[in-house]
Amino acid sequence: MRHKISFYTALLIILCFFSSKSYANFDFNENCKQAYTLLFEFKFNAAKQRIQQEKNLRPNNGIIILLENYTDFLYLISSESKAEFERLEKNKETRLTALHNQDKNSPYYLFTQAEINFQWGVLRGRLGSYLPAAKEINRAYKLLEQNQKKYPNFHPNLKGIGFINVVLGALPDGILKSTLSTFGISGNTTKGLQMLAQLADNLPKSNYEHYYEEVVYLYSFLLSDVIVSPDAYLKTMHYTNRFSDSSLLKTYMRAYISLKEKENEGAIQILKNTPKGSNYQEFPVFKYLMGVALLNKLDFTAENYFNSFLAENKGDNYIKDTYLRLSWIKLLKGDIAGFNTFRNLLKKQGYTYHEKDKQAVAEANDQTPHVDLLKARLLFDGGYAQRALSVLANINQSEIKQPIHQVEFHYRVGRVYESVGKDDLAIQEFQKAFDKGKGFKQYYAAKSGVEMGKLYEKKKNWGRAKSIYTSVLSLGDHQFKVSIVTEAKKRLSQLPKT
Q1: What gap in Å lies between CA 376 and CA 411, rounded to an integer?
Q2: What is the CATH number assigned to the segment(s) 366-498?
Q3: From CA 448, how far away is CA 429, in angstroms rounded?
Q4: Which residues pair with 61 in a beta bridge?
Q5: DSSP for 255-297?
Q6: The model scores a pTM over 0.85
Q7: Distance between CA 210 and CA 93 in Å, rounded?
Q8: CA atoms of 256 and 423, how far apart (whole Å)
């Protein structure tokens, strides 16, 4: 009898062992796809309910681990909070350990590990932790390359490979690029963009259609913020047509690209129609974006939106930039005391993780803006070129006291002329800004040089373009030197050989 008990006990152990192994798999089923879609619509509560349903039905489904990481990733992207990042960071290693017990013969085995490393690398990089971020991105890239060799027809691989290629190929010289180069990672911008464009076109016809929103988001971000492509606006609006109108991601992407591409009225209309409801994740950044859009047209009700953003925001980004814009409103209203109050708050509050906040600090340490030049700047940023030109035309140049404001005047006039197609007049103004501004730390001279070079390229005057770009590289230290020099070098390298 003892032998029979031993036998059945052993058999039970063996069956349990194989049973647990057989259910450790990756099943991106319809329920998981629904959860994934809800996450990208920022309906986190509904997404979490779907994930919990999956846990109840199929507790060993490895896709659950990936979806939980997406939940943290998108929450941290939307909250922009370092404190929340530090609270949730421990989940990374727990999830990677859990994935090691999953089906090693699935294309999702290496892919999910790559995704988790990639997502935490992106989050870490946004907080300025470049070395750990570089290590995670390197790990993700190696895993994706390995997975692509094993499963060349597994299209989701191309999402991460394409994105990393574009970013690394386009990164300006700096800490992150030099850190990544130590791992032997280099990118190919053209190759990466082609991968993502093909995915955006082909995913709707494939079994991986659920990745469409994420791919379009990544592709749009790269076009607008990394490559700075002239096609960014049209492509973003085109590809987001397929998104649900209830998607907060659609609202954010369309409003953001509209603001960036000077489609200010369009941005305002998009933001006015933002989907609302208790089922959505809080997104205070919409208040910030509306404030920016209204201020661009010199509508001072922007102040209400900026104050709402500061009251509701739990994150770390855009705080300094918001105080900068509140200080501008006070200055434009003639309230110098209020201007100084907000400028001082800018210096004390917020962080400098985001480029906008870094720029805000630089501006706070600069001279008080010239009121009419500030008006022209804001109107130009909103795409109101004729209104900006009217403001500039009414400025009496002889009354501009500060030399740097004289430089800025020529730069602002040049930018407006350039935007309305008056290239020769733009070149004249840019040349004046370049000549007068070379000794200043502000970016006007360097940026004028790059814009001048572009206009000479348009005229196919390659020799003059080359001369201007070379002059930009020879300038001393100035604001935004890394990005401006990177652009000048890139355009110089692309000129036809003469």
Answers
A1: 11
A2: 1.25.40.10
A3: 9
A4: 25
A5: HHHHHHTT-HHHHHHHHHT---STTSPP-THHHHHHHHHHHHT
A6: yes
A7: 26
A8: 28
Among 2.60.120, 3.40.1000, 1.10.8, 1.25.40, name the CATH number for the domain at 284-352: 1.25.40
Report, in this order, helix, strand and coil percent for the chain, each rounded to 5: 75, 0, 25
Compute the distance between CA of residue 93 and CA of residue 343 in angstroms, rounded to an integer: 42
In DSSP terms, which residues pair with 25 in a beta bridge? 61
Instruction: Kindly calculate the radius of gyration of the chain based on its CA atoms and give it in whole angstroms.
Output: 26
Q: What residue ranges do the domains of the chain occupy?
A: 284-352, 366-498
Nearest to 134 by CA among 193, 194, 174: 174
- Tens place of pLDDT per residue across the chain (498 aa): 444 445 444 434 333 333 333 345 999 999 999 999 999 999 999 999 999 999 999 999 999 999 999 999 999 998 888 999 999 999 999 999 999 999 999 999 999 999 999 999 999 988 888 888 888 999 999 999 999 999 999 999 999 999 999 988 877 666 566 666 666 667 889 999 999 999 999 999 899 999 999 999 999 999 998 888 999 999 999 999 999 999 999 999 999 999 999 999 999 999 999 999 888 888 899 999 999 999 999 999 999 999 999 999 988 999 999 999 999 999 999 999 999 999 999 999 999 988 899 999 999 999 999 999 999 999 999 999 999 999 999 999 999 999 999 999 999 999 999 999 999 999 999 999 999 999 999 999 999 999 999 999 999 999 999 999 999 999 999 998 988 998 999 899 999 986
Residue 61, classed as helix, strand or coil, is: strand
3-state DSSP assignment of residue 25: strand
Q: Is 25 exposed, middle or buried (0-12, 13-18, 19+ CB in 10 A)?
A: middle
Examine domains 284-352 and 366-498 and report if their fold is the same: yes
